[in-house]
Amino acid sequence: MNRRQFLKNSVSTTFGIAAASAMPASSWANVAGANNDIRVAVVGLGGQGWRHAAKYRNIPGVRITALCDVDEKRFDRTLKVLEGTKQKPKLYKEYRKLLEDKNVDAISIVTPNHWHSLQGIWACQAGKDATVEKPVSHNIFEGRKLVAASRKYNCLIQGDFDSRSIPGLRQAVSDIQKGEFGKIVAARGYIYKRRTSIGKVKGPHRVSDSVDYDLWTGPAPLKPLMRNRLHYVWHWVWDTGNGELGNNGPHHLDLCRWVLGYDRLPRRVMSAGGRFGYIDDGETPNTQFVYYDYGDVPIVYEFRGLGDTPVKFNDPKFVDPQEARMEQYRGVTRKGIPFKTFYKGRGVHSGVLAECEGGYVDLYGLVAYDYKGKVIKKWDKEDGDPKASFIKAVRSRKRSDLRNDILEGHLSTALSHLGNISYRLGAQSSPEQVQEVIKGNKDLMEVFGRFQIHLAKHNIDFGKTPLKSGPMLEFDSEKEKFVGDWSREANMFLSRNYRRPYVVPEKV
Questions:
Q1: CA 76, CA 67: separation in Å to the nearest integer?
Q2: Is the pLDDT of residue 469 over 80?
Q3: Distances (CA, A) of 462 to 315, 344, 390, 420, 449
């Protein structure tokens, strides 16, 4: 080889290395896939996991090449979803082994909350794109680290929230932000979904032999199972879940923040609630409200887990959330006019309301009303699919094609964490004590008034089941730290002690 050839080859090699560093390994893997297919792995095969598989099955140019779950019994249902196709995914119990699979370009992370961010970070480090179920983190620190990993490794990470993929909803948000209904004065979100008691055990419960409990526990403390079920009810235990506020809350809070155009977290947050109606092994509240103070337009959020009729303490009878009758939302505008919301009288009742000077918009019903109750605009209710937008972005390599980039997912999830931190720092309070604290705030007084009426309907005695009222916490959105009173205690909840080797790193 002469000098000219040597220099020519050196330049080509340098250019190749530079190109490779600007593009994640997944994009190179995509080229190698048969027919340029996007090869997807679904991790976590519970109720949402097999639904992810069902969605990918119907997206052209996508093949499911791997499935992963720490419970061997969970593979069968998802494999049945793929019956009738030629897809024969590899099965993994260990997520880190899956990351070594060169036949995987992108990952759907549908595991319990305490695993979300770490699995997303590991995906980035392995050069694979990922979509992460809500909430995208178990705490604020690790959510921010997932954003950092996405940027450092140039991987596409999507928060798998549904709202931003719905065409009619995107148009409604645009119309509101253009001022079609006047200035926005408040955003309100709610979900009323029946949550029954998870029971109360007298001692540790045996974990099924089909489960690798160490892997399932991952970053959380390894403790005996002190409830009668492992799966799903982990939502109501702080070590692994974030309560209803972290379960369904991110969907509604993301929409609230989106319609308000906020690219930051609030300056103050306050929450109150409790676990009412039964005494069980759950730790998180089943009835709660949160106030987010942005300095101009607030977000008010509430959820209820008790049905429309009174329940008995420790009632073990299971009521299907899709069949339970819930209360109708009875919120009132700042003008003193009840909101109109549609409810079929059975199953989950949820929504987001954008209150404006000239009327309000039911963003779940996609209909706008004036303050006389007249419909003034409707939008198309066509469904959207966040999986399809994720695949589009993986193919295009454009972050702008993601409907909910991980930064948006982090901020909306952090709203849930902020509310829970105020609640967890709360003290047992009487209704009179709460009213004394929140007097002068019309939004809080309105939601707390309905909160009391709801619990009175269920014969809740605050002497037996105390109300827990959290402090109004001050927050520095830029630094993502609490400041002022209670800051030392509150900042302790921003992260956690991780169990090796399942550690979310300070430097990703």
A1: 11
A2: yes
A3: 18, 31, 46, 20, 15
Strands (E), 324-382: 349-356, 359-362, 367-369, 375-378
Sole residue written with tokens 């109501």 = 236
Distance of CA 85 to the CA centre of its chain: 31
- 165-491 is classed in which CATH architecture? 2-Layer Sandwich (3.30)
- Could you tell me the pTM of the whole model? 0.92
User: How would you class 447 by CB atoms within 10 Å of its CB: exposed for 0-12, middle for 13-18, buried for 19 or more?
Assistant: buried
| Nearest one of 215, 68, 58, 74 to 128, comparing CA atoms | 68
Q: Which region holds residue 204: left if phi is over 0, alpha if psi is between -120 and 50, else beta?
A: beta
Q: How far is CA 143 from CA 132, 302, 337, 364, 506, in A?
A: 11, 23, 39, 27, 12
Spatial distance between the Cα atoms of 275 and 296, rounded to a whole number of angstroms: 31
- pLDDT tens-digit map of 294-321: 999 999 999 999 988 876 655 555 566 6
| Furthest C-alpha separation in the chain | 91
Pairwise CA distance, residues 117 & 489, whole Å:
23
For the chain, the domains span 165-491
Give the number of other CB atoms < 10 A from CB of residue 223: 10
| Interatomic CA distance for residues 269 and 334, integer angstroms | 20
Q: Quick one: how far is CA 343 from the chain centroid?
A: 23
How is residue 167 written in tokens? 């065409």
